[in-house]
Amino acid sequence: MICLVSSPTHRGRFITFEGLDGCGKSTQLEKLAKVLRADGFSVTVTREPGGTATGGKIRNLLLDTATAGLSPLAELALMFASRAQHMKEVIQPALAEGRIVLCDRFTDSSEAYQGGGRKIGSEPVLALHRLLFGNLQPDLTILMDSEVSASVERARRRNIARASDGSRAEHDENRFEQESRAFFGRVRQTYLAIAAREPQRVVVVDARGPAEETHARIVEIVRRKLKSAAKTA
């Protein structure tokens, strides 16, 4: 596990949320941020791809349905280009200040979507991560597990709603949602393989129940992790 830079009060902590599109992770991340701030923590909320001005431009390219013919390797390279800038501008500075960073997606997404979904395989993804970030890993990853069909349908409905609302439809982000059920099945299985490989970091949360139950479970996991980390700091 990465040894983060200490602040005078506590070490920064890096917590990521992973899962299929439409599983509710963005909502749960924001709800957790409110709880942690009420607990007295300084919290930075961010997302991938994106998180910076440069990353936002890459996100628009990656998620736009007009981006046709993009090779899986080019897609992977763009994801990591956004991630490298995100790390430099947002994640590392926040951790150095002792903040809790809550990030919607990180390298696990690349392993699941490009490695599994696009059939590149895990090793090229992990090798690129090692090249750019060394042994840096999140302190905790919440993997929100959900049914493929329900999650993808929810993501498609969400994007249709955004497209019909001029105030929210800044960009087309439907490119991945148009993939097949088989694609998302591979993504889910890769996520579960990551969790089995790294149980000390990745905690699987069943996202199929009521949102408030999911929220309570996530808060319990995170508070336990932070308490444990405080004892060893």
Protein architecture, described:
With 233 residues, the chain is an alpha/beta fold. Helices cover 55% and strands 12% of the residues. It contains eight helices and five strands, in the order βαβααβααβααβα. It has helices at 25-38, 53-63, 72-96, 107-117, 122-133, 148-164, 181-197, 211-232; strands at 13-19, 43-47, 100-104, 140-145, 202-206. It has a five-stranded parallel β-sheet with strand order 2-3-1-4-5, with helices on both faces. The protein is globular and about 50 Å long.
Features:
Rossmann fold
Short description:
The protein has 233 residues and is of the alpha/beta class. The chain has helices spanning 25-38, 53-63, 72-96, 107-117, 122-133, 148-164, 181-197, 211-232; strands at 13-19, 43-47, 100-104, 140-145, 202-206.
Write the layout of secondary structure elements.
Blueprint: E1 13-19, H1 25-38, E2 43-47, H2 53-63, H3 72-96, E3 100-104, H4 107-117, H5 122-133, E4 140-145, H6 148-164, H7 181-197, E5 202-206, H8 211-232
Parallel strand pairs: 1-3, 1-4, 2-3, 4-5
Helix pairs in contact: 1-8, 2-3, 4-5, 4-7
